[in-house]
Amino acid sequence: MGIPTINQRVTAAIAEEFELDSAQITPDARLIEDLGLDSLDSVDLIAALEREFKVKCPEAEARNLRTVGEIFEFVAQLQPA
């Protein structure tokens, strides 16, 4: 799967899960400061990514994600080669 497709799907999953405008979801957007998510939302984010990409997200790593761009990279690394 190509990077643009991954990024589009991550953006759509975040927008749907947290009822956000996809225009807000840019690579530099910070999850807490810019998108208004809190630490409890990280559980929902992980679940949404696992559903969308049918992968298992290592929770310890996922909890360290701070920006949408970091999520893009994280999900890309989880994809089979």
Features:
4 helices; 81 residues; mainly alpha; single chain; Non-ribosomal Peptide Synthetase Peptidyl Carrier Protein, Chain A
Description:
With 81 residues, the protein is mainly α. It has a single domain (3-78), classed as Non-ribosomal Peptide Synthetase Peptidyl Carrier Protein, Chain A (Orthogonal Bundle), CATH 1.10.1200. The chain is built from four helices and no strands. The chain has helices spanning 3-18, 41-53, 59-62, 68-78. α1 (3-18) crosses α2 (41-53) and α1 crosses α4 (68-78). The radius of gyration is 11 Å and the shape is globular. The relative contact order is 0.20.
Condensed summary:
The chain is mainly alpha-helical and 81 residues long. 54% of the residues lie in helices and 0% in strands. The chain is globular.
List the helices and strands and how they pair.
Elements lengths: L2 H16 L22 H13 L5 H4 L5 H11 L3
Helix pairs in contact: 1-2, 1-4
CATH class: Mainly Alpha
Strand count, sense and barrel status of the largest sheet are:
none
Overall helicity: 40-55%
Distance between the termini: 9 Å
